[in-house]
Specification:
The chain is of the alpha/beta class. Helices cover about 30% and strands about 20% of the residues. It contains 13 helices and 16 strands. α3 runs parallel beside α4.
């Protein structure tokens, strides 16, 4: 049953699912705005579709209405997020719906942004039938960082781990070869493209010297910030993550690099901090992991994709700040001496530990990707 009191039928669910599919066209392009799709249906037939494709461009509803034209009058509009009521970079979507003369609007979920919310009520005041809450869980999952940002002081955190069948990150020799196949690696770059920041620990920087950039056909509107959890400021000044960094106050196409350190490390070696800052690092000194994550949020980072290794994964799990756990499992066994992905995670008992809900599971080449939910958006 929806908020309108009318039973939700399968057609309503199907059209809302279509809006969620359409919304994906804006992947990596709309932040800090959410992904939104819209469908206009007249007499059971789709007469218009649209999506918010890029930050600053038209929202999904006016795009779909323009596609429908006069056929929008008396139609039902399905939208994945409550239509906005405020004048931002584009006019209010509620005004466009009212002007088009639509008869009914079906909304997947309410907007948590107090500046934009209230569209459902405004539509009802205009005599339009409104239904809210169809496929709501899927709609919130699609824009989880956006919803989370409105009630949390830290970013939405996704922990991504590539492991063997026996749960190892690398073999006993600490080899740097890929565990997973090209399909999994392409999916990771797709995930990076829709993240505000990508993070690793200092150990990963020292061992692998990663770039942590988005590579492939899908390029984000804004390159994700690179973050290193570096308690003792061990990141080398000549590392690729700094040599390609846009330092504080500079105007460069390269993404910023933030080193998240503890206060003790900074006080002990001010000279090293100065060297790293000259190399392009933006250094955050925090008293705790929680304080560091809050500082990242204050710098505009709503979504953080953490790519390991074991120490960082353990610290985040210990602090209970992981929201989604994404496991890419390769069909190999690394055996004795291999570095287990969860060797630093807090211990738990099989009889008392809750099973993690599975949000998504699919095959990528020979690998298996599973997304687990640890919190709600």
């Amino acid at each position: 049953m929806s908020s309108s009191g009318r039973p939700v039928d399968e057609r309503d669910r199907a059209f809302i699912r279509r809006t969620l599919d359409l919304a994906l066209a804006g992947w990596g392009q709309t932040a800090p705005n959410p992904l939104v799709g819209a469908v206009v249906v007249r007499d059971g037939v789709v007469v218009g579709e649209g999506a918010h494709l890029r930050h600053g461009d038209l929202h999904a509803e006016p795009v779909a209405l323009a596609h429908a034209g006069e056929r929008a009058r008396g139609a039902t509009v399905y939208v994945s997020l409550e239509p906005c009521t405020h004048l931002g970079k584009t006019p209010p979507c509620t005004d466009a719906l009212i002007a088009a003369g639509v008869a009914r609007v079906v909304i997947a979920t309410a907007d948590p942004n107090p500046r934009a919310a209230g569209g459902a009520g405004r539509l009802r005041d205009a005599g339009i039938e409104v239904m809210v809450g169809v496929e709501e869980a899927a709609a919130r999952e699609l824009n989880a960082p956006f919803f989370f940002a409105h009630h949390s002081a830290r970013p939405w955190i996704t922990l991504k781990l590539a492991v063997s069948i026996d749960g190892a990150l690398t073999d006993a020799r600490r080899s740097s070869a890929w565990l997973t196949g090209p399909e999994s690696r392409a999916e990771v770059h797709r995930m990076r493209a829709n993240s505000d920041a990508i993070a690793v620990g200092a150990g990963t920087v020292l061992a692998d010297d990663p770039l942590l950039t988005v590579r492939g056909a899908l390029q984000p509107r804004v390159a994700p910030v690179r973050v290193v959890f570096d308690a003792r400021l061990e990141t080398p000044p000549d590392s690729r993550i700094l040599q390609t960094a846009a330092g504080p106050g500079t105007v460069m196409p390269a993404p910023r690099t933030i080193l998240l350190a503890t206060r003790g490390a900074s006080d002990a070696d001010a000279a090293r901090r100065a060297v790293l800052e000259r190399a392009g690092a933006d250094i955050i000194i925090a008293d705790s992991l929680a304080a560091g994550l809050t500082a990242l949020k204050e710098r505009g980072i709503q979504s953080l994709l953490v790519e390991g290794g074991a120490a960082v994964a353990g610290a985040l799990l210990e602090a209970a700040v992981v929201d989604r756990l994404v496991i890419f499992q390769a069909p190999i066994v690394l055996g004795q001496g291999a570095i287990n992905a969860f060797s630093r995670a807090p211990a738990s008992q099989v009889t008392t530990t809750a099973r993690l809900p599975v949000v998504e599971r699919r095959t990528l080449g020979d690998d298996l990707m599973t997304v687990y939910a640890l919190t709600d958006p």
